[in-house]
Amino acid sequence: MSATASRLRRLLGLRPTVPDRYRALIAAHAPGRTFIDVGCMWSVHGAYAFHAVESGATAVTGVDLMSPSPEFVTRNLASNGAVRFVQGDINDASTTAVLGKADVVFCAGVLYHVPNPLLTLEQLRRICGETLILGSATIPEQRQPQTAVFLPYLDERRRRALTYRSADVKIGLDTEFARDQSYANWFWGLTASAVEAMLRAAGFEVRERYLHRRSVCLVCRAV
Ligand SMILES: C[S@@+](CC[C@H](N)C(=O)[O-])C[C@H]1O[C@@H](n2cnc3c(N)ncnc32)[C@H](O)[C@@H]1O
Q1: Which of 63, 121, 134, 183 is least enclosed by beta carbons within 10 angstroms?
Q2: Which atom of ligand 1 is closest in space to residue 39's alpha carbon?
Q3: Among 113, 118, 168, which is best to mutate for testing ligand 1, by the most ligand atoms less than 8 A from CB?
Q4: Ligand 1 centroid vs 14 CA: distance in angstroms?
């Protein structure tokens, strides 16, 4: 969404879009802080990491399984290499060792793609000095609070009940689980309450929560 469209939404008193929410939170937390964006590449080409740089973060790192896209490389060259890029799996100890710790960690669109979300949150805790801004797709709350649905091999009718229309096909949710596609799959249908409980179990205190129709964004403090 363009900056003009975002301003218009604000003027009309409309709820921020999810990307606008992320941008506002990064602008609020990044100034004067070190910053890591986990899962920084697909479709956004490091945009949130660059936003942290522009918001006044002191050192910015982006990490992703993917190699840097041409769009990322061009923008980073134009920014004099302001974003350090690390290619690696956040679930690997070797990746967190290279990343080190940052005051602020931003991780959006990753949690439901990993087979072991608690392990991933523990990895985020290891690299987080102060604040975690976590965004995740969610499913509606179920009768039992803190429900998380394991999607691989769920029958099609039940998968269909959890999905929604989106521009891109959601592998593992709109389709069957694709074992060879690893993290591209949606492994979990997470309720917002399950995400919050997992964050607490991994050593975070949830300070702010923003519920969107199909996702949640939580601002947490490392405890
Ligand atoms: C759905 S995209 C989200 C992109 C962006 N953060 C956003 O919110 O629009 C997920 C990104 O996380 C990356 N990713 C998924 N699993 C990962 C892992 N285990 N370690 C590092 N990056 C991962 C993917 O390659 C992809 O770039």
Answers
A1: 183
A2: 12
A3: 113
A4: 28
Domain 3-141+190-222 CATH superfamily: Vaccinia Virus protein VP39 (3.40.50.150)
Spacing, Cα 166 to ligand 1 middle (Å): 17
Q: What is the CA radius of gyration of the chain?
A: 17
Place of tokens 């607490």: 200
Say what the pLDDT of residue 106 is: 99
65 Cβ below 6 A of ligand 1: yes
> What rounded mean pLDDT belongs to the chain?
96
- Tell me the pLDDT tens digit for each residue of 154-183: 999 999 999 999 999 999 999 999 999 999
Grouping H, G, I as helix, E, B as strand and the rest as coil, residue 160 is helix
Domain boundaries, the chain: 3-141+190-222
Whether ligand 1 lies within 6 angstroms of the CB of 42 is answered as yes
- pLDDT for 1 beyond 70: no
Pocket of ligand 1 contains residue 177 by CB under 6 Å: no
